[in-house]
Amino acid sequence: MMKRRDFVRLGMAAGALAGVAHEALAAGTAGGSASGILDAGVREQQAQMAAGKLSSSSLVKQYLARIAAIDKAGPRLNAVIETNPDALKIAAEMDRERAAGKLRSPLHGIPVLLKDNIATADRMSTSAGSLALNGVRAVKDAHIVALLRKAGAVIIGKTNLSEWANMRSTHSVSGWSGRGGQTRNPYALDRNTSGSSSGSGAAAAAGLATLTVGTETDGSIVSPSSSCGIVGIKPTLGLLSRSGIIPIAHSQDTAGPMTRSVADAALMLAAMAGADADDKATAASSGHIADYAAALRTDGLKGKRIGVARNFFGSNDAVDAIIEQELAVLKAQGAILVDVKVPNVDKYNDSELQVLLYEFAPGLEAYLKNYAPHAPVKNMGDVIAFNAKNAAREMPYFKQEHLIAAQAKPGLDAKEYREALANDLRYSRDEGIDQVMKEHKLDALVAPTGGPAWLTDYINGDHYGGSFSSPAAVAGYPHITVPAGYTRGLPIGISFVGGAWSEASLIGMAYAYEQASKRRRAPTFPASINVKL
């Protein structure tokens, strides 16, 4: 969630590193900005593999070498918390299948990094960044992981995150976890990535994998995507299963793609979408899962009525200027722009937090029982006690106020919880997004995703410069952010938000904008911002 050191060494043998580092250097990607095949998208990489010029094994080796070169050395982004010791074995199997004429999906042989709150039944830990779960292996894959494996994707590692998905403290530092330390922004190393999908954002931006996966309760996909200059999709609640994802709140939690392009995000979303008997919310997706690749049309903005959410401007003059410029791009592509105000956004500030606090402890206990039964902690109380006992390592910068508050909440039959949830849905959906879209006959809403990356601050915690995440997050509606420009070299994103199950339409609009604007540029890992820009 956005509004909210023991270092894990790479799982590689030293002897293997010499060979793979040489391949990365040959590809021109061991240092500097991401380039060549490692910065390419799914379709480009697949074309190279189809032509026999690239293999999944070679691609995985190059990404592992790049992780060693710029994540664990060089600029030391610290985006990857652990690599998969079986990644090369899996890649080799995908290569054998390709050679035999078997291609599972567009993701066959494509390297993926997962946020470290997504369960994998392999030799990697699933920890949510907490030392309390360090070394704990899940007994089964999260549903979306099973789908990615079925699609032929190669999971090469896990990414760092804001510990417990930024739901531990009222004064947290995004991108920091007890297990993984601090992730750094590839566009200015002293700046924050935002969170909580911090490592996924930094890794995608820096070209540490073709694709990454994040999760969001409120802002945790779209905010780091914006801060790290990439595309992020927070889908409709229920489009992707949450089973096997360490939870905050079932009323808002979802996974989603974090990638360097809208096309890659669409392909990844398609691979992860689908009903799951272990997540009742996914039953509602029946009849709503679309062909997201077919939505990638350069005329996706033509004739679309788009509401410019003016009450989400005004937090930063430089950001506003960038987005105003990009509105002209939307209009040039055939969009009809209407100035609007998203109503009632101040009426669920407190109720949203109450819902999250009520749902956190029971959700965590259920996850630990079903996916990590051998973990030394069994519930929220155990996690709180672990942190108190290991305060020097777990709480050097901020405490655990949210964990304590969540532990104190009664069950989900409490009147306060039911009223808070009803309030959330009323003002975010019925009298919020649905109301403004119906009143103005809109296809989407747009606004700045948020402010530029702030200086990482261990004294005062995070400094947010505006955010458009909450309306879609609380409503459970889709939200896509796309790179829109830069201020002092720091990325700024533009958001596209729609009604429930409007992913295909939003993807079409986001893709048309992306192709017309082409604002994204690869990071160069400067120590700080360039004040002359």
Essential attributes:
17 helices; 13 strands; globular; eleven-stranded mixed β-sheet; about 525 residues; Amidase signature (AS) enzymes; alpha/beta; about 35% helix; two-stranded antiparallel sheet
Shape: globular
The CATH C-level name is Alpha Beta
Order of neighbouring strands in the sheet with most strands: 1-3-2-6-8-7-12-13-11-9-10
Distance between the termini: 31 Å
Main β-sheet description: 11 strands, mixed
| Mean model confidence by pLDDT | 94
Q: SSE layout and pairings?
A:
Elements: H1 14-26, H2 42-50, H3 56-71, E1 80-83, H4 87-99, E2 111-115, H5 143-150, E3 154-159, H6 163-166, E4 176-177, E5 181-182, H7 198-206, E6 211-216, H8 222-227, E7 231-234, E8 254-259, H9 262-272, E9 305-309, H10 317-332, E10 336-340, H11 349-371, H12 380-389, H13 391-394, H14 401-408, H15 415-439, E11 444-448, H16 470-475, E12 479-487, E13 490-497, H17 503-517
Parallel strand pairs: 2-3, 2-6, 9-10, 9-11
Antiparallel strand pairs: 1-3, 4-5, 6-8, 7-8, 7-12, 11-13, 12-13
Helix pairs in contact: 1-3, 3-4, 11-14, 11-15, 12-14
